[in-house]
Amino acid sequence: MKIAFVIFDGMTALDFIGVYDAVTRLKIMRYRQDVQWEICAYTATVSDPTGLRFTPDKIGESLSAYDVVIVPGGFVARNLVNDAAFIAWIKTAASCPLKASVCTGSLLLGAAGFLQGKRATTHPSAFALLEKYCAAVVNDKVVDEGEVITARGVSSSIDLGLHLCEKFTDHKTREQIRQQMDYQG
Asked: Which of 62, 84, 81, 86 is nearest to 4 (CA)?
């Protein structure tokens, strides 16, 4: 299973790190040896709003070769929905079996057309912005619509990661990873 963790300049760090930490434990803790991941960005320079820098493995390459694509959010996502080149890059994930987002990353999935006819969630401050992209905005931590999964606000990144751990294995594995993370959610 090949996972693309998407990062972009201005993203919220925890949106990325929470889900990354949980999902990569599938391999680190030896629950699934077939898990591989790469950090993918559209640009070479990526930092969060506080200046924390991230180094991508792949820059501007198509996301079509991945089984799972995970997109974080951040206030900047509200503007990125209008960046045609960036959204065209996100659209390269169209053939991926599973696309997931944290927080306003759902706006990016929506702008790419992946939420049409689906229920979705995002940070509560962006509920109104999400409405035009999906069938219904849901006030839940994680909304699983099969090939698209969205998670609410920043801290829901960990919830999404654990949800994916269960989806890729089972409930027992999710619980063992949750306990190892000392997460009470």
From this structure: 62
Q: Which residues of 128-152 are buried (b: 16+ CB within 10 A; e: fewer)?
A: ebbeebbeebbeebbbbbeebbbbb
In the chain, the number of structural domains is 1
Q: Active site residue: 40, 103, 134, 165, which one? A: 103
pLDDT in tens, 39-97: 999 999 999 999 999 999 999 999 999 999 999 999 999 999 999 999 999 999 999 99
- Alpha carbons 122 and 174: distance in angstroms, whole number: 23
134 is catalytic: no
**So what's the pLDDT on residue 185?**
75
Domain range for residue 136?
2-181
pTM summary value: 0.96
